[in-house]
Amino acid sequence: MIKSASRFIPIPYALLLLCSGPALSQEMQSRDGHGIIDIAKRYEGVITDLSHRIWKMPEVGFKEEKSSALLQSALRKEGFSISSGVADMPTAFVARYRTGDGPVIAFLAEFDALPGISQQAEATAPSPVIGENAGHACGHNLLGAGSVGAALAVRQWMAKTGFKGEVRVYGTPAEEGGDGKVYMVRAGLFDDVGAVLHWHPYSLSAVINSTSRANIKTDFTFHGISSHAAIAPEKGRSALAGIEIMNVAVNYMRQFIPESARVHGVVTNGGEAPNVIPSVASSSYYVRDIDVNIVKDVQGRLLKTAEGAAIASGTSVEWTIKGGVYPLLINDTLNKIAYKNLKTAASALAWDEKEHRYAESVQKSLGMAPENDPALVIPLAPLPPGAERGAGSTDVGDVSVVVPTVGVMVMAWPQGVTPHSWAAAGASGNSIGTKAAVTAAAALAMTAVDLFQSPEALSDAKKELLKKRGPNFRYEALLGNRNPLD
Fold first, then answer.
1. Residue 389 phi, psi (nearest 5)
2. Distance of alpha carbon 231 from alpha carbon 261, whole angstroms
3. Predicted confidence band of residue 15 (pLDDT cuts 50, 70, 90)
4. Sequence spans of domains, the chain
5. Using the 8-state DSSP alphabet, how is residue 215 labeled?
6. Mean of per-residue pLDDT scores for the chain
7. Residue 392 pLDDT
8. Cα–Cα distance measured from residue 449 to residue 153, given in angstroms and rounded to the nearest whole number
9. N or C of the chain: less Cβ packing under 10 Å?
10. Percent of the chain, pLDDT > 70?
11. pLDDT attached to residue 390
12. Is the pLDDT assigned to residue 13 strictly greater than 50?
C-alpha cells in the first residue's frame, strides 16, 4: 500500500492502485504510431548521462550554474537556440527548435537540489555523501534530464516528418522555495505557448489530477531598543515581544479564517542572550489556500497582526514578500491525452532483479512492505470529494493559470518513498531513477506529438482554461515586483 502523501496525490487516491494492472507491451506498440518511444530510447544514454552528472554535483536554487549549462549544451548540440539568463535569473533559460509557423509546445525542466540532505546512490539505509551538503532528494536531476530528452525526441520527429511548429524547453531554476517559474510567467515568456508539459519523479506513476494550494511567503522583522534585561528593562523595547505578540494574534486569528486555509510560521531570530533585550527579531510565515482570494484576504489580516503587535510592544515592524504561487489549474482535456500516453510508455518500465532487491531493501529500512510494480499507472478517474485538493504548493501553478498545462508522475523511487527524504535522494541517482526519466521522456514526447497534430485538442484545452479561471481573471504575480535574487 502507498503510505505517503505528496503535494500532488492525496492519500485516499492511492487506494485506486487496487483497481489497475500493468498494460501489455502489445498495447504500447499499437498506440505509439509515431514511433516516439523508439526515438526517445535513442536518447537514453543522453538522459542517463545528464541525470547522473547533475546528481553528482547538486546545486541549490539560483546557483545551478553547472546543471543549467549541461542541459543547455545538450539542447544546443541538437540545434536548439538558447536564450540564457531570462527573467533576471542567471540559471534560467528558454531553448527553442522551430521549423515554421505552427503550434508551440513546451516542456518544463527543473534542476535544483535541496540543501541539507544527501545520500549514496546504492545505499539502502541513511548514508550521506561525505562533504556534500545538498542532494537531489526531490529528483530534479531526473526531471530536467527527462524533459530535455522529451524535447530532443520531439525535435527528431519534427525533422523527420517536416511538421511545422516549435518545441521549447523552459529551464526553470529554484523550484524549491525560489518560485523560479513565477518570474518567467511574470516576464511574459509563456504568452505564445499552446500547451505546457511537465513531469515529476515519485513512488508511483499517475497523471497529476489534484490541485495545489496558492501560497504567499512573508518575512517579518521587528525593531526595538536594546537594554540590560535586569538592570534597566524599562529602557528597552523587545523586538522579540513583538514577534511573540504577533504569534499569539495569529493563533487567535486561525479560528476565524476558512477551514481550508493554512497559516504557519517560525521564529528565525529571537535574540542572542537572555539578559539582553533584543533590538531585532524576525519570523517567517506562509499563508495557503486553494482559493487565491482567500490567500490574499488572510495575508492582509496577517499583516495587521504584525502592525498590532508592533504597537502593543512599542516596536516597529517591516516585512518582505519572499514568494507566492497560484494553485495548479488542472486541465482535463490534456490529462486524458497524457494518461493514454503514460500508460503506453510505462508498460515498458521494468526493473531487473538487482533493482528490485535495492528497492525492497530501502523499503525494509523504512519499515514498509516490499511491494513494487513499476509498470502500474493509477487510473485517471474522478477523485473522491475533497481529495482533489492538494496540500502543498508549487510554482507550476502560475504556469497553469496562463497556459493549458499537464503533468505526470513516473515511478522513480521504491513504492511508499516520499520526496525530500534520503531514500528519494539515493534512488534519484540510481538506475531505477534514470529508467523513470526515459519513460517520462517518452510519455511527454508522445503527448506533445498528439497535441501538435490536434489543433482541436489545443483549442479545447484553451477553452477549458479560460472557463475555469473565469472571465474576470487577470494574472498578477502573488510575489509582486520583487527581484528573484533579493
1. -95, 110
2. 44
3. very low
4. 11-212+327-469, 214-325
5. E
6. 92
7. 87
8. 10
9. C
10. 93
11. 76
12. no
**Separation between Cα atoms, residue 267 and residue 157, nearest integer Å:** 53
Q: For residue 455, how many C-alpha atoms fall within 13 Å in the half-sphere facing its CB?
A: 4
- Cell 493509477 belongs to residue: 378
Per the CB < 8 A criterion, the answer to whether 312 and 248 are in contact is no
The CA–CA distances, whole Å, from 332 to 35, 71, 471 equal 25, 30, 19
End-to-end CA distance of the chain: 43
Average pLDDT over residues 155-171: 97
Instruction: Judge if pTM exceeds 0.85.
Output: yes
Q: Rounded to an integer, what distance in angstroms lies between the CA atom of residue 345 and that of residue 35?
A: 11
Q: What was the pLDDT predicted at 104?
A: 98
Q: Does position 318 have pLDDT exceeding 80, yes or no?
A: yes
The H or E element containing residue 439 is helix 431-452
Q: Which residues pair with 414 in a beta bridge?
A: none
Query: CA-to-CA distance for 166 and 444, rounded, in angstroms?
Result: 15
Asked whether residue 3 carries a pLDDT value surpassing 50, the answer given is: no
pLDDT at residue 384 in the model: 76
Instruction: Check pLDDT > 80 for residue 439.
Output: yes
Q: Which of helix, strand or coil describes residue 107?
A: strand
Kindly report the backbone phi and psi dihedral angles of residue 181, in degrees, each rounded to the nearest multiple of 5, phi listed first: -65, -30
Give the amino acid at 33. G
Q: How many CA atoms lie within 13 A of 259 on its CB side?
A: 2
Whether residue 383 contacts residue 181, with contact meaning beta carbons closer than 8 Å, is answered with no
Cell digits for 69?
549549462
User: Residue type at 338?
Assistant: A
Q: Which residues pair with 218 in a beta bridge?
A: 285, 321
Q: Which fold is adopted by the domain 214-325?
A: Alpha-Beta Plaits (3.30.70)
Query: In the chain, helix, strand, coil percent, each to 5?
Result: 40, 20, 40
Residue 401 near residue 291 (C-beta atoms within 8 A): no
Residue 264 burial class via C-beta count within 10 angstroms: exposed 0-12, middle 13-18, buried 19 and up: exposed
Return the CATH architecture of domain 11-212+327-469.
Answer: 3-Layer(aba) Sandwich (3.40)
Instruction: At 19, list the grid cell.
Output: 483497481
Rounded CA separation 107/98 (Å): 14
Cell of 15: 487506494
d(CA 34, CA 446): 8
What is the greatest pairwise CA distance in the chain? Answer: 84
Cβ atoms of 446 and 34 closer than 8 Å = yes
User: Residue 291 is placed in which grid cell?
Assistant: 482559493
Q: What is the pLDDT of residues 396-426, one digit of tens each?
A: 999 999 999 999 999 999 999 999 999 999 9
In 33-103, DSSP assigns E strands to 81-84, 93-98
Grid coordinates belonging to 269: 531570530
Grade residue 12 by pLDDT with cuts at 50, 70 and 90. very low
Residue range 358-411, pLDDT digits in tens:
999 999 999 999 999 999 999 998 877 777 677 789 999 999 999 999 999 999
